[in-house]
Protein 1
Amino acid sequence: MKKFKIIALIAAVVVGIGLYYFLSFLSNSENEVQRTAVIVAAVNIPENTTIEASMLTTKEIPTEAVLSNAVKNMDEAVGMLVNSGVLAGEQLVFDRLVKVGEQEATDSLAYLVKPGMRAMTISVEQTTGIAGMIKPGNSIDLIYRYTREADSAGEEAEEKEEGEETIPVSKILLQNVYVLAVDKNMSKASTPQSQESYKTITLQVSPEDAVVLNFAVNSGIVSAVLRSPIDTDSIQVPEITSKEIDNY
């Protein structure tokens, strides 16, 4: 009986030593796991929210679990907009970050429009659309040609033909208008040759200018005039009638 007790005791000691080394091995293995610090959401971040520093935190996770496009620097995320909701504890990835107003940062027109501005699409042809040479990112002026009633008591009466009640007028309607898209193309990298058949251009305008432009395209002819990218000045040009053209 005593012999069995001794054997049991020895077995218990062996098992205890084995368990100790096994647990030590697991502990050392955990300590040897490589970890990487990433940026995660500290709170739920709803879609189309501008990120603030208080919404984020840094967390170390196993390197093998880090997403390929994970954000690792908080400064790269603060001030950006999330284009889809992010749950608390979820890794923040660059695919969900948008900088509003940057042409190459998104494929959504809504995120290209600067705050306070509006996107408006107008139809163009070869002559009104600068022969298919407009590209996203260009700036243009818009010329408005229309007819108006002649003032029979003024000089305009001399300009109209006999029996006519209106005279043609041409004027610069809007200046330095930013082109957001050509047809559905929003990329600056496109070439004029790949867009030569476009039929519409989408412009960034103020709400007030949108109302004016809407009226103009439905009451006359609106033509685009391409500007130099380094020319941002507005100029004063008087409206032109046939009389001014004759004396030009």
Protein 2
Amino acid sequence: AAQRLHPGLRAEVIIATSEVLCDHVRSGRCDFALGRPRDSDGLLTTLLFGEEPLALFVRRGHPLLGKTDLQARDLFDHDWVMPEPATLLTRSVLARLSDLHLPVPQCRVATGSNLFTLAVLTATDAIAPLPRAVAASLSVHAPAPFVEVPLDLGLGVPPYGMIRRAATELTPTAQRLAARIEALALGA
């Protein structure tokens, strides 16, 4: 929509951890970032958008989907695909599983790539915790080859938002794009 309104708009999208994105904003490489605030020096401000709920996803036709009385313990009969243990998503999932007195899942493939995770899901009986919004965006035009496991464990990661340099004005173009993103994220 922003490109239709502003045909000359050019945007670079950098996919990285919140820490790296905050460094890019702090240094001026990026005008703003969508992520989790990691600022202890007062150089950044964040407009929080909200929680990021996670769900467990599997391929269509996965054996878990045919169970009539699916229980949390059934999840641990399968491999899981998650990022490395130090990442926020994996730490959050493992903490929630611990809170529920559930075991640590077997995770023989570790990746931070949602695309690779989905490729593994569609080719195996693995399970992956993913942001619901990511899965929804990938299945908006056609039925996706993966589906959400119908079992809510209350998984999520801390709130995210738009991170900007404090006391710095955005360029008019960056301001228009930021305003559009804020409106979409906040449901305005």
Protein 3
Amino acid sequence: MWDMLSEQRELIGEPKGENTIRVLVVEPNKAPYPLDVPNRLDTFQRLVDGLIEAVYFEEPGICGYCNDEGKLIGLEANRRFGGDIICGNLVILGSDDEGGNVSLTDEQIERYTEMFKEPEVISQDEVRSSLSYEIFTF
């Protein structure tokens, strides 16, 4: 696990100061792990390898980020979530009343580590069938 964390630190830079939050990273075919990261957009974009898309949990004050185009660009299927399939990394974090990012508590890290501890086998056919497009007109 240390090598994985070292690689992540290299990728996002060393967390510094009070603008650091604790998140849970869920990668395809791996157990989740907590990570202290700078609370910046570019950090989350690096963790998901592209533009971020917010995903929402039933628990108030919890959200996640994944790659906005994960399915389209062929990222590896990760976990089923909310009737959909997340492709690529999922970063779980807290959210305050104003929509700002905050650290997960130790209890939340334990709960979501348990929830996502088992990697899932998801076929490319399942991923393709979960693709959908929304067209909005004005």
Protein 4
Amino acid sequence: MKHKDISYENRYKHKLNMLEPGLVMIKVIGVLLCVGVFLWAVGWRPLSIILFILAGGVFITLLILIIIEAHQDKVLNDIAMHENKEKYNDNIK
């Protein structure tokens, strides 16, 4: 990966932070699944299937956002290691 003229400020304008939104999404998934199971038990199968599909969609969205955040963290860590290496080499000279 090339790190020429790359810094924290110009790499990503918006860094994802999925801790709070991720917790909310997990709660939404749990509620959708519980209501879906309840509706399945009551006999409203089509509506419960829709809720299961919605829960799956929210879960897939959460996974995609976590993958994006992990990639951003990896790139920013690579940049930080490169910058620290340059500072260390400049101090030695």
